[in-house]
Amino acid sequence: MSDVTTLAFETNCHIFDGCGFPAPGLHSFLFKPLIGDGGGSVYFNKTMLLALLGSIVIVGFFWAAFAKPKIVPGKLQMVAEAGYDFVLGLRDLRNLDWVDLPTSHWPMWSKPRELAEIIGRVASEHATAG
Question: Is the pTM of this model over 0.85?
Answer without folding.
Answer: no
